[in-house]
Amino acid sequence: MTDGGPTLLEPGGTNAVGQMLGLLGDEWSLLILGHSSRGLTRYGEFREVMPISNSVLTHRLTRLTEHGLLERRIYRTNPLRAEYLPTARSRTLWPMMLAIWEWERSWTGPAGEALPLRRHEACGAEFAPLLTCRACGVPVEARDVRAAWGPSGGWERSVPASSTRRRPDSVPNSLQYPQTLEIFGNRWSSALIGAAFRGMVRFSQFETALGAPPTLIAERLRSFCALGVLETRQHAHHPGRPEYHLTDKGRAFFPITALSVQWAQKWFVSPEGPALVQTHTACGHDFVAHLACDQCRQPLVTGSITIVPVIEDRTTPEGTP
């Protein structure tokens, strides 16, 4: 599949959210798409910047091509060489990628603080992306949005089967955006964070909704608590039964989930209707996520953002180690 329209889904099958989790809920695919957005196109280029095996890279490139996020184009026939170009489908992931950059920069300590800043060319200021409602322009947080399953919704249709398996140590922590990969770069993790935003707090709720093995749910909950996106609280009436609540850091992940769901429902269309219906409670309109510059409040558009070069600290006297 190359640049084209949305994928029409089969009635009763995996919905747009499930399709998105199956594609983006994989750490290697996210890394490939991130490098693709920065201009990498060739197999050797991906291998150079990622500690990935040939078989895994080939599989992921093939899968992303089959689902319309990359276009394979032959640029040499003898020997045969191909490059993988971004499509309209992958290029429209830039708001989600920008939200990932902001969350990592704000919430992951020294590693995030070391990320380069970005400048909004329209106002000339270094900025942070601000999640807003397109209908009324007001900044939005997770608590401001009411979500309900749509005609093609439901947990069973939103958690996909997957042909990829994730090993806990498969992506080194030295890579860019490691905490996002822990939360979103795995189909069960991304489904679990979505369930937390839907108000689930008890182990039994996560287990019933997601249909994942209890040991996997327990491992993911421990990981999320270690990352600081969830915290345990004791049940009010059952002290021995912990609940898992989003922290400020976890709630700040909402723009990433909102933008990924929005991307999914643009490119994977069910004849029954949307999988998830979201309403901005302040204005009553359907919530359409939109990023604005926090300095000038103007909408952010592709091409209006540049990376601010990192300037070496030159305050150390010459000759001092």
From TrEMBL:
Residues 150-173 are annotated as: Disordered. It holds the Pfam family HxlR. It comes from Aeromicrobium senzhongii. Residues 10-112, 171-272 form the HTH hxlR-type domain. InterPro entries: HTH_HxlR, WH-like_DNA-bd_sf, WH_DNA-bd_sf. The keyword Transcription regulation applies. Keywords: DNA-binding, Transcription, Transcription regulation. This is Helix-turn-helix transcriptional regulator.
